[in-house]
Design goal:
3-stranded antiparallel sheet, 2 domains, single chain, 3 strands, Multidrug-efflux Transporter Regulator, Chain: A, Domain 2, transcription, 12 helices, Globin-like, mainly alpha
Amino acid sequence: MAWSIAEVARMSGVTSRTLRHYDEVGLLPPAWIGSNGHRFYEEADLLRLQQILLMRELDLGLREIQAVLDSQVDQVAVLREHHRRLLKERDRLETLAHTVGRTIAELEEEKDMDGTTKINRPENLFEGFEPHPAEAEVRERWPQEWEQTQQVIATMTAEDTEQWQREVTAQMIRIAEFMASGTPAADPAVQAELDAHYQDICRFWTPNSDAYKGLGQTYVDDPGIRANYDKIADGLAVYQRDAMVIYADARLS
């Protein structure tokens, strides 16, 4: 069965103009084009559009989305991973909503006689927030590398920073998809991603074999960093660490 571009636009909420743009950049070509020039899409194209829209929800750019889609092996495994991440984010947002609602209730109901408010359990104010690595700890553990990194960051514009963050997220997703499909960390395709990861780090500082392995271990040991990786996929921090060890032994020793 095939659907016209107008039907796909109506179903997905994506404008026909956007769908034509996706075709022009090679992200979502139609299954076929009729003699009248109208684009038609089949089921596989709708599934691909769904994945594009999922990644747009993560604020990935079109080039990053293209790279992710091109790297996919097992479509069902990838969709399962997207589904797991969406459910996890839903649960986190529900927890945050509950936290804010509880705070509102306490501020409205628990007023002291002088008009000030009191919170029964202050630790409840922060339930549901994601942990982040402590900047001071990073500076203490790697002072020289910290200074080098800060010098590079100081030269980056807001657009540079946003683009870099999107590229990092896209690469994390690609590596997660290798993990979800059962690809060994030593696989050449995974190691190619690790080479790109290492080269990206070298924009800020140049780790040797031991330092690169240590960085990978930090991804596992630091609760904030591990949470960021495992937010993409459970076990991703360990998989990334293992792949970094293999890369360091093969390329940096």
